[in-house]
Amino acid sequence: MTQTPAPLPTPVVDAAVGWLVHLWSGEATEESRAQWQRWRAADPLHEQAWRRIEATNARWRAHAPGLAETLARSPKAAGRRRALGGMAALAVTGMAVWAGNEQVATHGWLAGVRTAKGEQRRLLLSDGTQLMLNTATALDIDYSPTLRRLRLYTGELLITTAPDTHLPKRPLVVDTPAGRAKALGTRFTVRHDAEGSAAPGTQVEVFEGAVELRSASGLALRIDAGQAARLPTGGTATAMAPPAEPAWAEGVLVASDMRLDAFLDELRRYRSGLIQLAPEVAGLRLSGVFPLGDTDHILQALGQVLPVRVQVPVRYWVRIGPAG
After folding, report:
1. Could you give the CA distance from residue 219 to residue 238 in angstroms, rounded to a whole number?
2. Structural domains for the chain
3. What is the DSSP letter of 164?
4. Tell me: the pLDDT tens digits for 177-203?
5. How far is CA 3 from CA 6, 12, 165, in A?
6. DSSP-derived secondary structure for 212-239
7. Which is more confident, 151 or 91?
């Protein structure tokens, strides 16, 4: 039996993708190639990530021969950059399949409803329930005569339930790899971060009504309006700080005395490619309201509100370090 490779940390995966994009860009120099080799040698996980991405690249070449050669032959820089954009999207997609839990990722790519990174979408279900999908969300909608079931593989949902007119009445549940959230007449969010992320598991925040959050082992926690809880994959649900209204549903990212590294962790959910942060500035704090529709503007603003320098060597690679 073939053993599934262990998931790698998301920052390592992002770094590997960033290096791949840079090397494909046609803008790599001897110095940047030396930096890439130093990155590979700095940590065994870095080398493991790079070997996996090389294997992924080989599979793409088998399925789409000539793709990389087309990029190399692009006669103009602008044309090359456009081709790079498509290649980078393929890179991020391919890496995501093996970066997290393989079963969840596979189901996610086959999900009936998906949003791309940075995309948000509203849905009205047949019973009147309203969904808003956040960035990089994958789910299946499975309504039967006995159950209204949403299967969330990854991403985030804002759910406003409607009374079920079906007889007998059917409960509405959201199943994730960590457990099940059962709506008790409510408005709430469910977010699932897959294995390989900084904090894998399911988070539920309730704004109206109540939700019952049940782990795979059967232990349940009731969450009332104004409360939140987190359920780690394979763990037990625990209460969290009271939630604020989901700012992402209004198209903004809100920071309130937030560490820069935590802020960028959130921003990475909405932006493809690699964002590198120097350790010296990770603890800087910021507050503000940032429009998610323009992540380039958010990055530019960081250099105006914090003593940092933001560099973009290539389109999908951002480096943030101390100013000056």
Report:
1. 11
2. 10-99 (no CATH), 115-240 (2.60.120.1440), 251-322 (3.55.50.30)
3. -
4. 999 999 998 999 999 998 767 778 999
5. 9, 21, 47
6. EEEETTS-EEEEETT-EEEE-TTS--EE
7. 151
